[in-house]
């Protein structure tokens, strides 16, 4: 794997961008999300809920901690 030198953080950040993703890129991305879901599965409460205000809704919008 090559080593790159950058003069600024912006330049290093731009080097991470991928403007022409191919099938291999999407395969690796899918595997990354699969691995993340394996370590920290997301579970949401089922059903419809009513809230008195937006703050109460925002507090409940987070996934259930395990």
Summary keywords:
mainly alpha, 3 helices, single chain, 66 residues, elongated
Brief summary:
With 66 residues, the chain is an all-alpha fold.
Can you give a write-up of this model?
This protein is mainly alpha-helical. It has one domain. The protein is 47% helix and 0% strand. The protein contains three helices and no strands. The longest helix is centred in the middle third of the chain and has 17 residues. The chain starts with 8 loop residues before the first helix and ends in a 6-residue tail after the last helix. The mean pLDDT is 87.
Radius of gyration: 20 Å
- How big a fraction of the residues is strand? under 5%
| Proportion of residues in helical segments | 40-55%
Tell me how many strands there are. Answer: 0
Residue runs with pLDDT of under 50 for 5 or more positions = none
Q: What's the main sheet like?
A: none
Tally of individual domains: 1
Mass-distribution shape = elongated
Q: Helix tally?
A: 3
- Average pLDDT confidence is 87
Distance between the termini: 38 Å
Order of helices and strands: HHH
Secondary-structure class: mainly alpha
């Amino acid at each position: 794997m090559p080593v790159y030198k950058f003069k600024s953080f912006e330049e290093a950040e731009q080097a991470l961008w991928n403007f022409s993703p191919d099938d291999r890129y999407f395969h690796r991305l899918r595997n990354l999300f699969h691995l993340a879901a394996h370590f920290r599965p997301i579970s949401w409460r089922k059903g419809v809920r009513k809230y008195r205000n937006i703050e109460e809704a925002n507090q409940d919008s987070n996934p259930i901690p395990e």
